[in-house]
Amino acid sequence: MLLCLDIGNSQIHGGVFDGDALRCQFRKTTHPLGSSDESGVFFSAVLRENGVDPRAVQRAAICSVVPQAHYSVRAACVKYFRCEPFVLQAGVKTGLKVRYRNPHEVGADRIAGAVAAVQRHPATPLIVVDCGTATTFDVVTAAGDYLGGAILPGMGISVEALAGKTAKLPTVEIARPATALGRSTVESIQAGVYHGHVGAIQRLLGELARETFGGLRPRVVGTGGFARLFEGEGLFDEIVPELVLLGLQHAEQLNRDG
Fold first, then answer.
1. What is the pTM of this model?
2. Is 109 among the catalytic positions?
3. Rg for the chain (alpha carbons), in Å?
4. What is the pLDDT along the chain (258 residues), one digit of tens a residue?
């Protein structure tokens, strides 16, 4: 079995693959990360709770946008799962042709999402939208060229910024409001953050399609913790919450077979 770990700024999203089947998924907060032993004990315990014997894990794969977490999680894999994890980073095989000016700058989670989207929809123009701590847009051509994209603050960051940088605005739950017209401060913040994000996604999708695909609409794949909030808005052709894990699993297999 393969343990995949997507280390994000807010959460670690993990999953275990038995062949191509995703047996289980779990999440934990990234901060505070704790020691390698704390990470290893958590991973072992959460696998048992999900019906997976930790001793059956033979391989591990990591993609991370949090450099300080890399050592602790890697050491946990070595000690508790007896394997040196594969790390998705610049220079490994992905099946993509990365056309970013500096490939080392691209977040590993963005590459993993693009890899999985291409595997699901080969020879198809694609935009992957990952709605997490940041909302990222990744453009891939039908030929498998990863061109880049756009990044904007995610919904969580927007709410935290309003609460942290103003004297009277509170922290609110991130939710889809019933109306765009807020009748209280909480409703007004929720309406502004939600509908503002919908508008930003719509605009960026339109501009990216115009610049890259001559205005033809590519297939848009949504992922990330907040993607489900936008169901019914017509933004995404499909929502695949486990997209990054699927891409990480494929990249690990590609490099192991190679």
1. 0.94
2. yes
3. 19
4. 999 999 999 999 999 999 999 999 999 999 888 899 999 999 999 999 999 999 999 999 999 999 889 889 999 999 999 999 999 998 899 999 999 999 999 999 999 999 999 999 999 999 999 999 999 999 999 999 999 999 999 999 999 999 999 999 999 999 999 999 999 999 999 999 999 999 999 999 999 999 999 989 999 999 999 999 999 899 999 999 999 999 999 999 999 876
Domains and CATH numbers, the chain: 2-87 (3.30.420.40), 97-246 (3.30.420.40)
User: Which of these is catalytic: 109, 138, 237, 257?
Assistant: 109
229: helix, strand or coil: helix
Helix segments in 135-181, DSSP class H = 155-165
Distance CA 168, CA 185 (A): 10
Task: Answer for the pair 117, 136: CB distance below 8 angstroms, yes or no.
Answer: no
Percent helix, strand, coil in the chain (nearest 5)? 40, 25, 35
φ and ψ of 94, to 5 deg: -130, -15
3 Rama class: left (phi>0) / alpha (psi -120 to 50) / beta:
beta
Q: Phi, psi at residue 137, to the nearest 5°?
A: -120, 130
| Amino acid at site 195 | H
Return the closest-CA partner of residue 99 out of 139, 137, 148. Answer: 148
Residues 132, 224 contacting (CB under 8 angstroms) = yes
By the 8 A CB rule, do 203 and 216 touch?
no
Tell me if 175 sits within 8 A of 137, measured CB to CB. no
